[in-house]
């Protein structure tokens, strides 16, 4: 989050992206709280509306609701001539409908608040915004070309091998094939780093996947067959766990033996180094501040929709997670037991 004070105006930048730094605001309540915190930080005194909301007036107050946060935000904004907020990656927000409704309501209730929003062109967003007053700016690949050129130049310059091997013509071909997709170009450069000579680079450029899904399919195909059961389990936990998982927690997936068709707890199977999680998943996951997450939101879409050895079915994933938890608990009662074979255990042993 970035804030900048300009006389009596305030500019805020709020990222909703799920991938990357980990400092994300993925629902409306968290977003509203963040905006209010930054607005208060940029005022000499705590606004009266905030005092009432959080009980600074000496009275007991319950935790504020989203509706109360919205109302309070409208009052606090009045302390500025204008407030400009950039919300990045709206399409990655967990509560798009609520956020879009709030954004539309701002036009009539909060005249001093101005929003600039970035997003992929998703149907629900386009439909909700169709009846609102807004300016739509579509970024074509031509408009992004200079930015991608700068990105490619920086990445190549940072790699001694690529710097000595890649010509301007090669870099141009990379940009043209990318057609405005930063993520795709980033994956390609990661692949090119393994080239040993200029001929390798030329051949690799000729056979690069032409879409993100094609790139993800290529990444999945390179995962060692012996590692696939681990990768499948890790992906299921990452997609459907109730909270973000640390490296140590997700590495615990390796403690399960999958050879019986269902998870059986066996700590002897565990990874010697928890960071093996990153190797097993072939670049589909990244670590940020000791938390493991998918490298990009589009990977989740690929895993849920496209045919691949890592394709995930949500009900099956929830069942798998439940079985894994039960297998772990069962092992605490009867070490070495396999889920499905009910051990003879006295109820007293469970206490």
Automatic annotation (TrEMBL):
| Ranges for domain GPI inositol-deacylase winged helix | 218-307
Q: Which domain of life is it from?
A: Eukaryota
Query: Keyword Repeat: yes or no?
Result: yes
The reply on keyword Repeat is: yes
- Nephrocystin 3-like N-terminal domain location, by residue? 24-120
The entry's keywords: Repeat
Classification via InterPro entries: GPIID_WHD, NPHP3-like_N
List the PANTHER family: AMELOGENIN (PTHR10039), GPI INOSITOL-DEACYLASE (PTHR10039:SF16)
Q: What is this protein's name? A: NACHT domain-containing protein
């Amino acid at each position: 989050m970035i804030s900048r004070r300009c006389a009596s105006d305030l500019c805020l930048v709020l990222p909703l992206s799920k991938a990357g730094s980990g400092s994300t605001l993925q629902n409306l309540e968290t977003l509203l709280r963040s905006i209010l915190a930054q607005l208060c930080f940029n005022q000499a005194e705590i606004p009266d509306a905030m005092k009432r909301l959080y009980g600074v007036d000496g009275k007991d107050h319950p935790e504020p609701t989203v509706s109360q946060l919205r109302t309070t935000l409208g009052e606090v904004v009045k302390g500025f001539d204008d407030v400009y907020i950039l919300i990045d990656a709206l399409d990655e927000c967990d509560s798009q409908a609520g956020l879009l409704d709030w954004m539309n309501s701002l036009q009539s209730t909060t005249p001093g608040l101005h929003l600039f929003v970035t997003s992929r062109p998703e149907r629900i967003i386009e439909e909700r915004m169709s009846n609102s007053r807004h300016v739509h700016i579509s970024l074509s690949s031509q408009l992004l070309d200079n930015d991608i050129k700068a990105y490619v130049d920086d990445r190549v310059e940072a790699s001694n091998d690529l710097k000595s091997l890649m010509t301007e013509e090669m870099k141009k071909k990379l940009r043209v094939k990318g057609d405005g997709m930063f993520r795709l170009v980033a994956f390609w450069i990661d692949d090119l780093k393994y080239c040993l000579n200029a001929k390798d680079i030329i051949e690799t450029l000729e056979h690069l996947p032409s879409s993100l899904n094609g790139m993800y399919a290529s990444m999945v195909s390179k995962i060692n067959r012996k590692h696939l059961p681990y990768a499948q389990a890790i992906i299921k936990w990452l997609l459907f766990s109730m909270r973000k998982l640390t490296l140590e927690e997700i590495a615990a997936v390796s403690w399960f033996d999958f050879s019986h068709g269902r998870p059986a707890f066996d700590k002897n199977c565990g990874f010697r180094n928890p960071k093996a999680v990153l190797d097993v998943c072939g670049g589909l996951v990244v670590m940020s501040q000791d938390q493991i997450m998918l490298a990009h939101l589009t990977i989740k879409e690929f895993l849920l929709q496209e045919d691949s050895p890592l394709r995930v079915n949500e009900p099956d994933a929830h069942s798998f997670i439940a079985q894994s938890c039960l297998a772990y608990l069962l092992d605490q009662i009867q070490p070495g037991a396999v889920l499905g074979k009910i051990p003879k255990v006295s109820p007293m042993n469970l206490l």
